[in-house]
Recover the amino acids of this structure.
């Protein structure tokens, strides 16, 4: 008897967060607007809240709100921000730790006896519970539930006892564990920090006039006219001020390089460059590897919009099977989980995605997508192809099966909700209803950084994590309320 999936609507994996920072030494850029543009280019990394913090002659202020960048930063909101700022940091958030409230939106700005700082963070700490408990016992007061606020408290406490902020950050790096990319702005400095494992991406670019920009992805640098210089090294602290840029490498080479492999498979924008590898080229390579390991006798290769398109091109190139557009996506439909009734949720795929009959009818189709999470969306997509007249559907997935949770900022559901948990590929194929199923292997996953020899974190696939997991905070990560609406406010 075929195992049945539950009716829970599938939601694509959360894209962690996106951070951005800019130092305009020449002083001729409108930083609120430039930061807004950069955040638009990072919108795919988080859609729940966003914010911008500005430095005007050493005074820090900003604006943040719940919702998309274009909704929070209206024309009126942007006009209310000081365009004379020479430093700024911005953030888009997807909550994988902490609830969806305005108190958790970033950047977080704090004022202390030695000045002020604004903090933007991408990643998750694995010892957050332990650190928060110690801070609360020592008198720290928290306004939200995110681990970013923990980092803010730690840096503030260390800064009060340190000669400068970079020394304070070095001290904090001794106690925080897990994944973190930080952009820290003080009265005189813009600082980039990457954890010693390099789990999340962070890069730096140069501006005309001697300025610099920092971003989770190079696509944001392109948006503001910055030229990609390089990636921030794992464990490195980059300090930017009026005298230029300098590097602190005390924490470099202290841990194995473990970049999240899913940055290449799904999270990052195709036009971004991570560790010297274009994400688009990496996904095309994944498709080629799939074609070698899981060939199919078929008439056409199509990709699931939008995340499967690049890998589908690679599969077609390697296999010699023609590539075609087989599914059109309606980009003006909201997320499926906001639909009210079960019937509405079941029809979401039909509303969002529609097959092209002339491409599909009477054809043996290879369908390529980036991942299978719960399996519900994949199953409905396959059914759409059969209804459009496909003779056969061969499903190819440009990632290994998800079987384990992520502790570093990727919103992988609890293992019990993953279709691959305790099931063979044949059992998953029967559940999805396709003629054949093939996943990218773990070994092939390690080949996606074409121009780099960086290592990867594959924990959600093989249960082997680069950092010891001390806190039992997975329940909070996967038992969260839906996004709460809110309005922007000054910070």
């Amino acid at each position: 008897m075929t195992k049945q999936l539950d009716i829970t609507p599938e939601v694509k994996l959360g894209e962690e967060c996106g951070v951005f920072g800019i130092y305009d030494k020449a002083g001729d850029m409108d930083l609120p607007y430039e930061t807004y543009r950069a955040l638009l280019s990072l919108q795919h990394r988080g859609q729940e809240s966003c914010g911008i913090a500005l430095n005007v002659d050493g005074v820090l202020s900003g604006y943040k709100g719940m919702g998309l960048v274009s909704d929070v930063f209206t024309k009126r909101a942007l006009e209310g921000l000081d365009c004379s700022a020479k430093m700024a940091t911005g953030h888009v958030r997807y909550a994988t730790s902490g609830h969806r409230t305005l108190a958790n939106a970033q950047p977080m700005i704090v004022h202390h006896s030695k000045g002020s700082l604004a903090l933007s963070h991408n990643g998750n700490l694995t010892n957050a519970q332990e650190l928060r408990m110690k801070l609360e016992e020592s008198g720290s007061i928290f306004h939200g539930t995110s681990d970013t606020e923990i980092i803010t408290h730690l840096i503030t406490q260390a800064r009060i006892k340190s000669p400068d902020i970079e020394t304070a950050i070095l001290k904090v790096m001794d106690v925080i564990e897990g994944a973190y990319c930080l952009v820290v702005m003080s009265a005189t400095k813009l600082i980039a920090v990457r954890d010693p494992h390099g789990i999340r991406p962070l890069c730096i670019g140069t501006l005309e006039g001697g300025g610099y920009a920092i971003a989770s992805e190079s696509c944001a640098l392109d948006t503001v006219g910055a030229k990609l210089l390089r990636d921030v090294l794992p464990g490195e602290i980059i300090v930017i001020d009026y005298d230029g840029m300098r590097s602190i490498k005390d924490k470099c080479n202290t841990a194995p390089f473990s970049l999240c492999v899913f940055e290449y498979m799904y999270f990052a924008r195709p036009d971004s460059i991570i560790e010297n590898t274009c994400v688009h080229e990496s996904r095309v390579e994944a498709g080629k590897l799939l074609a070698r390991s899981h060939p199919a006798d078929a008439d056409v290769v199509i990709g699931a919009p939008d995340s499967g398109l690049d890998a589908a091109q690679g599969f077609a190139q390697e296999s010699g099977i023609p590539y075609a557009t087989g599914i059109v996506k309606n980009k003006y439909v909201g997320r499926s989980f906001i639909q009210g009734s079960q019937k509405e949720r079941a029809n979401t795929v039909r509303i969002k995605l529609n097959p092209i009959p002339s491409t599909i009818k009477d054809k043996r189709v290879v369908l390529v997508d980036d991942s299978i999470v719960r399996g519900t969306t994949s199953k409905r997509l396959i059914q759409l192809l059969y209804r459009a007249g496909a003779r056969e559907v061969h499903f190819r997935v440009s990632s290994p099966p998800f079987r384990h949770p992520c502790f570093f900022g990727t919103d992988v559901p609890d293992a019990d909700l993953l279709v691959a948990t305790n099931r063979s590929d044949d059992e998953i194929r029967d559940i999805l209803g396709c003629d054949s199923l093939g996943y990218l292997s773990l070994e092939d996953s390690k080949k996606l950084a074409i121009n780099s020899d960086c290592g990867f974190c594959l924990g959600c696939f093989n249960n082997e994590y680069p950092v010891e997991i001390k806190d039992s905070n997975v329940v909070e990560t996967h038992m969260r309320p839906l996004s709460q609406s809110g309005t922007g406010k000054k910070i």
The first strand starts at residue 17 and ends at 23.
